[in-house]
Structures are given as C-alpha cells and as structure tokens.
C-alpha cells in the first residue's frame, strides 16, 4: 500500500478502495480522517484498526484480516 494514499488530507470526501487485494497495515495517523465515507472492504488489510474521525458517516471494513479490539470511537 503506498504511503501517499494515507496522506490524502482534506482532498477527499469519500474513499472507496474496496475489492483491490490491497494488503498491509493501516497507519494510526490517517490523512483522510475528515472523509465522510471510507470503504476498505474485501482487501487483505491486517493488524489493529486505526482511530477514526467522529465525523465519519460510513465505514466499511468487511472481508479483511484486522485483529485486536474495536476502537471505542467507532460508532460514536
């Protein structure tokens, strides 16, 4: 996964990279924290879930290999 993708900043309202067989860990400090909708479904992401913005309206994470607890900020 290229590092630049995680640093898109305020340039995106919606990020959909589902069904791409992308792999690796998602960094805890994401550049697209202000995005309203993020779809990372059906990839090969692994490791713990990062912290997400409370402004996020839709977050799709299914069919990956995440591990660990679900962060308290998800769903609030």
UniProtKB/TrEMBL annotation:
Gene3D superfamilies on file: Ribonuclease Inhibitor
An example molecular function term from Gene Ontology annotations: receptor serine/threonine kinase binding
TM region(s), chain numbering: none
SUPFAM superfamilies for the chain: L domain-like
Domain of life (superkingdom): Eukaryota
Keywords: ATP-binding, Glycoprotein, Leucine-rich repeat, Nucleotide-binding, Repeat
InterPro entries referenced in this protein's UniProt entry, alphabetically: Leu-rich_rpt, LRR_dom_sf, Plant_LRR-RLKs
PANTHER family in UniProt: LRR RECEPTOR-LIKE SERINE/THREONINE-PROTEIN KINASE-RELATED, RECEPTOR PROTEIN-TYROSINE KINASE CEPR1
Protein name per its UniProtKB record: LRR-RLK
């Amino acid at each position: 996964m290229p590092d630049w993708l995680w640093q898109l900043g305020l340039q995106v309202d919606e990020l959909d990279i589902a069904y791409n067989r992308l792999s690796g860990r998602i960094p805890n400090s994401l550049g697209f924290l202000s995005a309203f909708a993020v779809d990372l479904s059906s990839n090969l992401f692994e490791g713990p879930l990062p912290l997400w913005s409370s402004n996020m309206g839709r977050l799709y994470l299914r069919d990956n290999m995440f591990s660990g607890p679900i962060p308290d900020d998800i769903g609030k």
